[in-house]
Amino acid sequence: MDERAALSFLGDRLPHAGDDAAVVDGQVLTTDMLHETTDFPDGTTRYTAGWRSVGASLSDVAAMGAEATAAVAVYAAPEFDDSDLGEFVAGASDVCEAVGAEYVGGDLDESREFTAATTALGRTDAPVARSGASPGEVVCVTGTLGRTGAALRLFESGETERANDLFRFEPRVAAGRELAPYATAMMDSSDGLARSLHQLAEASDCGFSVERSALPVDESVREVADGEAEVRELAVFFGEDFELAFTVPERELSAIRSESPTPVSVVGEVTESGVEMDGEELPDRGYTHGGE
Amino acid sequence: MDERAALSFLGDRLPHAGDDAAVVDGQVLTTDMLHETTDFPDGTTRYTAGWRSVGASLSDVAAMGAEATAAVAVYAAPEFDDSDLGEFVAGASDVCEAVGAEYVGGDLDESREFTAATTALGRTDAPVARSGASPGEVVCVTGTLGRTGAALRLFESGETERANDLFRFEPRVAAGRELAPYATAMMDSSDGLARSLHQLAEASDCGFSVERSALPVDESVREVADGEAEVRELAVFFGEDFELAFTVPERELSAIRSESPTPVSVVGEVTESGVEMDGEELPDRGYTHGGE
């Protein structure tokens, strides 16, 4: 099985799987694992790694429309250097502080490769699932798209300070909380916008029609991309931007825009079926870990 | 830094670190990582691996005297085989069910080595820390000691079915809940009894005097051990048995014995300082991962 088939296999067995996080008695729980070879390019500081890995789990809490309360991590490495470990903990603590959560530690483990396994805890009485979108609603994203793709190019070209800055995203917890009362379906864009739209379409049994020109492409993408095709690749497919993709009735847009602390862009509308961009089918593909 | 120095380094930076689990607003959160090369000997089934890895986190919830509510895991492997994955999920689900918690899934990740990163969530309004033991109290353990050491010998000799049985411990959540109102300090024995006593002594600023003859050595230990020295090694130092080690005033013993669903053995008493067995200093060492 590939990873997608395996996730589907799990979804059939576990009633709570299939959303960005599980919800048990109002507690939101989600876990992720990131590896040096696939997730942290050469030049990624341990501070950025701590921020980003814990941030990925906090983003899943945000996608449920929940408050973030705490996070833990397992820091696994071939050896424990106090500077590296201190930087990781500082990054993990700072990203938690940025969203009002508390970093409460975790565990250490010897591992051949630097690996971070992170878990975030949140709380909500009204989680937003992926399954509530209806035709006629609009589909929106928070913030900008393509930042992570641009960061990877900057790591490759040695501009590591700028790349690290772009890599440290702010999990959209505050926005998710404000959007939750209005959003009919929501998830984070960790696998890219295209893949997120396909996942929302499948969960909600609907389609999407989005406009390329409406996408909030991050300004860093245009700096690094070689032509419009690459801009599209980084903004639409690359993913790992950890923005929120969500659907709402159009009449709620003004309320959302005034309440969300992060800018919201309408990128298209919910349709009966099919996922299209500018009238053409949008492939269900994203960034695949492992460099395929 | 070695792992102990690194944990101490973390403890200085994170106010919630240092107990078996962190507690935030009555929610108990703990995370662990287990690897094939260090934690799952040849012959360990994926069912046992799922049970044991999730069980290790549930044991930390038990050590806080908390109710266990949910668990998640990241299953990381070079490839995803549906039989392996199904077995892992079944083991993870079954150990949760055994303690009244719910296994709610998690994530998948490609990794060079089979690795399980597990997180358990619990709830308590009165967590039991490691720091409350006082001289004059007694020190007790639940269940029996040495089972995991015996299991490793059985894996080595090819008796894998019996070894798998011994490897699937029951996390002491129910016992921990009953002991919590009485216990002055508690932790799980995942690093072995000797190490646990030293950790309790350090956290409580006390000492211990235990009797070798009072230890509840698992019957499997005598079957596999070659002489009394090896029995002692497996029961006292080996660890990974995930029993609870705790202190209580002696007058509470009859209440504890009638309420704990797991047998409780008094193994010694709390002293002013020093950790001794049969009047001799008990070394602060345990099972070190990685085969040192």
Automatic annotation (TrEMBL), chains A, B:
<dbReference type="GO" id="GO:0009229">
    <property type="term" value="P:thiamine diphosphate biosynthetic process"/>
</dbReference>
<comment type="pathway">
    <text>Cofactor biosynthesis; thiamine diphosphate biosynthesis; thiamine diphosphate from thiamine phosphate: step 1/1.</text>
</comment>
<dbReference type="Pfam" id="PF00586">
    <property type="entry name" value="AIRS"/>
</dbReference>
<feature type="binding site">
    <location>
        <position position="32"/>
    </location>
    <ligand>
        <name>Mg(2+) 1</name>
    </ligand>
</feature>
<feature type="compositionally biased region" description="Low complexity">
    <location>
        <begin position="259"/>
        <end position="274"/>
    </location>
</feature>
<feature type="binding site">
    <location>
        <position position="130"/>
    </location>
    <ligand>
        <name>ATP</name>
    </ligand>
</feature>
<feature type="binding site">
    <location>
        <position position="107"/>
    </location>
    <ligand>
        <name>Mg(2+) 1</name>
    </ligand>
</feature>
<protein>
    <recommendedName>
        <fullName>Thiamine-monophosphate kinase</fullName>
        <ecNumber>2.7.4.16</ecNumber>
    </recommendedName>
</protein>
<dbReference type="GO" id="GO:0000287">
    <property type="term" value="F:magnesium ion binding"/>
</dbReference>
<feature type="compositionally biased region" description="Basic and acidic residues">
    <location>
        <begin position="282"/>
        <end position="292"/>
    </location>
</feature>
<keyword id="KW-0067">ATP-binding</keyword>
<dbReference type="GO" id="GO:0009228">
    <property type="term" value="P:thiamine biosynthetic process"/>
</dbReference>
<keyword id="KW-0547">Nucleotide-binding</keyword>
<keyword id="KW-0479">Metal-binding</keyword>
<comment type="similarity">
    <text>Belongs to the thiamine-monophosphate kinase family.</text>
</comment>
<feature type="domain" description="PurM-like C-terminal">
    <location>
        <begin position="135"/>
        <end position="274"/>
    </location>
</feature>
<dbReference type="InterPro" id="IPR036921">
    <property type="entry name" value="PurM-like_N_sf"/>
</dbReference>
<dbReference type="InterPro" id="IPR006283">
    <property type="entry name" value="ThiL-like"/>
</dbReference>
<keyword id="KW-0808">Transferase</keyword>
<dbReference type="InterPro" id="IPR016188">
    <property type="entry name" value="PurM-like_N"/>
</dbReference>
<feature type="binding site">
    <location>
        <position position="60"/>
    </location>
    <ligand>
        <name>Mg(2+) 4</name>
    </ligand>
</feature>
<feature type="binding site">
    <location>
        <position position="60"/>
    </location>
    <ligand>
        <name>Mg(2+) 3</name>
    </ligand>
</feature>
<feature type="binding site">
    <location>
        <position position="39"/>
    </location>
    <ligand>
        <name>substrate</name>
    </ligand>
</feature>
<dbReference type="GO" id="GO:0009030">
    <property type="term" value="F:thiamine-phosphate kinase activity"/>
</dbReference>
<feature type="binding site">
    <location>
        <position position="30"/>
    </location>
    <ligand>
        <name>Mg(2+) 4</name>
    </ligand>
</feature>
<dbReference type="Pfam" id="PF02769">
    <property type="entry name" value="AIRS_C"/>
</dbReference>
<feature type="binding site">
    <location>
        <position position="20"/>
    </location>
    <ligand>
        <name>Mg(2+) 4</name>
    </ligand>
</feature>
<feature type="binding site">
    <location>
        <position position="287"/>
    </location>
    <ligand>
        <name>substrate</name>
    </ligand>
</feature>
<feature type="binding site">
    <location>
        <position position="188"/>
    </location>
    <ligand>
        <name>Mg(2+) 3</name>
    </ligand>
</feature>
<keyword id="KW-0418">Kinase</keyword>
<feature type="binding site">
    <location>
        <position position="20"/>
    </location>
    <ligand>
        <name>Mg(2+) 3</name>
    </ligand>
</feature>
<dbReference type="GO" id="GO:0005524">
    <property type="term" value="F:ATP binding"/>
</dbReference>
<keyword id="KW-0784">Thiamine biosynthesis</keyword>
<feature type="region of interest" description="Disordered">
    <location>
        <begin position="259"/>
        <end position="292"/>
    </location>
</feature>
<dbReference type="InterPro" id="IPR010918">
    <property type="entry name" value="PurM-like_C_dom"/>
</dbReference>
<feature type="binding site">
    <location>
        <position position="32"/>
    </location>
    <ligand>
        <name>Mg(2+) 2</name>
    </ligand>
</feature>
<feature type="binding site">
    <location>
        <position position="240"/>
    </location>
    <ligand>
        <name>substrate</name>
    </ligand>
</feature>
<feature type="binding site">
    <location>
        <begin position="106"/>
        <end position="107"/>
    </location>
    <ligand>
        <name>ATP</name>
    </ligand>
</feature>
<feature type="domain" description="PurM-like N-terminal">
    <location>
        <begin position="18"/>
        <end position="123"/>
    </location>
</feature>
<feature type="binding site">
    <location>
        <position position="191"/>
    </location>
    <ligand>
        <name>Mg(2+) 5</name>
    </ligand>
</feature>
<feature type="binding site">
    <location>
        <position position="60"/>
    </location>
    <ligand>
        <name>Mg(2+) 2</name>
    </ligand>
</feature>
<feature type="binding site">
    <location>
        <position position="31"/>
    </location>
    <ligand>
        <name>Mg(2+) 1</name>
    </ligand>
</feature>
